[in-house]
Amino acid sequence: MLPDSPIPDPEVPAKATRRHFTAADKSRILDQYEGASDIEKAAICRREHVYSSLLSNWRKQRSAGKPLSARRGRKADPQAAEVTQAHKRNALLERRLARAEQVIDIQGKVYALLRAVAGESADHLELPPWQKSSSK
After folding, report:
1. 7 within a domain of the structure (yes/no)
2. Which tops the pLDDT comparison, 133 or 105?
3. Residue 112 belongs to domain spanning
């Protein structure tokens, strides 16, 4: 080892992470691999830490005209995402409504208590704004 080279960390990570290749990396590796001899192909696989099966998948992907940056798996359903967002918004609004109703109920009780403490009869007093009827 060279004296200036950093010592690798011997600690094992808690969770293994997958290696992600950019489209440019995939294209570069494929170009090198396709122009190499059998021995050079093995060296490229070792150097890049990839299997030849992964390279053949990338080759198929490129020959099918799909972009190399395409992800595997299901595509996200925009309607499902919209429905989920609407459900979250609805739940939030229901919580806010319940909280507002509690505040209004407490305000009514405080108003009645203050009137009772003041010794005033509720018959002679104005109703609070939230209890007034709009038909006068």
Report:
1. no
2. 105
3. 80-122
